[in-house]
Write a structure and sequence with these properties.
heterodimer; A: 228 residues; mainly alpha; globular; B: 100 residues; 5 helices
C-alpha cells in the first residue's frame, strides 16, 4: 500500500498537464455535440488522450469503424511500451497484468519503467501511477465539458511542456552509458523526422523501434570489438 | 447509445495494445530480445520529447519550447528529479515569454 501511494503521488507533478488537456478535451467534446456526461464517459471508458482528441476531430465526418481503427493505430505505440515493461512483470498473477494494462498511459508507463530501471519499481507503484493519471483525466474532461466555453490553448502557458519535461526527468534514469545517450539522440532525431513525414503517432513507434535497434546493434559491435 | 458502443470499441482496441505484449512476453525470453527491450524505454521517451520540444506546432522551430526544454534538460541532468525538471522548464518558458 505504501508503494501504491508512492506511485499515486508521483503523478502529482504531471497533474497540471493532464488537467490542461483534460479541460481542452471537454470543451472540444461539447463543440462536437457531446453532452458533458458523454464527454466524461468517453474518458472513463477509453482513457487515451491522443486517440480521444483524434476521435473528436473526425466525429462528425467519420463512422464508427474508422474512428475505432484510428484509435487502434494511434495506440499501437503501447505495444512497444508493454513489451519493454513486460520483463518486470514476469511472475505476476495474470489478473495483475490485466489490471496494470487497463490504465497504462504514456505518463504512468514512463513513471513506472523509470522506477523499475532504478531498482525501486513494483506493481503497486505502477498501479498507483496508472490510477493517479486515471483519476485526473476524466474529472478534468467533465469539468471542461461543464464549463464549455473556450479554454486557452495549453501551449500559450507552457502547459504542453509538462509531459515532455516529465519524460526528460525520467529519461535520466536510463542514460547510464554512451550507448544509451546515442540511442536517445538517435531516437529523438528519428522522431523529429517521423513527426514530419508520418501520420498520427507513428513517429513514436518508428523511432522507438529503430532507436532501440540501434542500441542493440552498438552493444553487439562493442562486444565483438572487445572479443577481437 | 451509439456513442457508448463506439467508446466501447475504442476501449477494446486500446486495451489490446496495452495488454498484448505484457501477456505475450510473460515467460523466459531469448537474451537478444531482452537486450533489445532494454533500449526501448530510452528510445520511446526521447521520441516523445523531441517533437514536443522542437516542433510543437508541427514545424521544426527553435522557439520558446525548445529553449524551455533545454533549460529543463539542464535541471534534469543536475537533479534527476521530475518535479524540478517540470518547474525549471515551465519557469524558463514563462521567463522567456515575458522577455520576448
Amino acid at each position: 500500500m505504501r508503494e501504491f501511494r508512492r506511485g499515486l503521488l508521483a503523478t502529482l507533478p504531471l497533474a497540471p498537464g493532464v488537467v490542461a488537456f483534460g479541460l481542452l478535451y471537454g470543451v472540444m467534446a461539447r463543440q462536437v455535440g457531446f453532452s458533458p456526461w458523454e464527454a466524461w464517459a468517453m474518458s472513463l471508458i477509453v482513457h487515451a488522450g491522443s486517440a480521444q482528441f483524434t476521435a473528436l476531430g473526425m466525429w462528425e465526418a467519420a463512422g464508427a469503424i474508422p474512428i475505432i481503427l484510428t484509435t487502434l493505430v494511434i495506440n499501437l505505440r503501447h505495444l512497444l511500451m508493454g513489451a519493454s515493461v513486460a520483463p518486470h512483470l514476469r511472475g505476476l498473477h495474470p489478473l495483475w497484468k490485466a489490471l496494470l494494462a487497463l490504465w497504462m498511459s504514456d505518463e504512468s508507463y514512463a513513471l513506472a519503467i523509470a522506477e523499475y530501471e532504478r531498482g525501486r519499481g513494483s506493481h503497486w507503484y505502477f498501479l498507483g501511477a496508472n490510477v493517479g493519471i486515471y483519476l485526473a483525466w476524466p474529472t478534468s474532461g467533465l469539468l471542461g465539458a461543464l464549463v464549455g466555453t473556450a479554454i486557452p490553448d495549453p501551449g500559450r502557458y507552457g502547459l504542453d511542456l509538462v509531459f515532455p519535461l516529465a519524460f526528460l526527468g525520467l529519461l535520466t534514469a536510463f542514460l547510464k552509458d554512451r550507448i544509451s545517450l546515442v540511442v536517445a539522440l538517435g531516437a529523438g532525431g528519428l522522431a523529429l523526422l517521423g513527426a514530419d513525414l508520418l501520420p498520427g503517432k507513428w513517429y513514436v513507434i518508428v523511432a522507438g523501434l529503430l532507436g532501440s535497434g540501434l542500441g542493440l546493434l552498438l552493444e553487439e559491435v562493442k562486444e565483438a570489438w572487445r572479443n577481437s | 447509445m451509439e456513442k457508448l458502443l463506439i467508446f466501447a470499441g475504442m476501449a477494446l482496441v486500446t486495451y489490446f495494445t496495452r495488454y498484448a505484449m505484457i501477456a505475450a512476453l510473460g515467460r523466459e525470453m531469448p537474451s537478444l530480445l531482452r537486450h533489445w527491450l532494454r533500449y526501448v524505454p530510452v528510445a520511446v521517451l526521447a521520441a516523445l520529447i523531441a517533437p514536443a520540444a522542437l516542433a510543437p506546432q508541427g514545424e521544426l522551430e527553435l522557439g520558446l519550447h525548445a529553449w524551455a526544454v533545454l533549460a529543463g534538460a539542464a535541471v534534469a541532468w543536475r537533479t534527476r528529479n521530475v518535479l524540478l525538471t517540470i518547474l525549471g522548464g515551465v519557469a524558463a518558458f514563462w521567463l522567456l515569454r515575458v522577455l520576448e
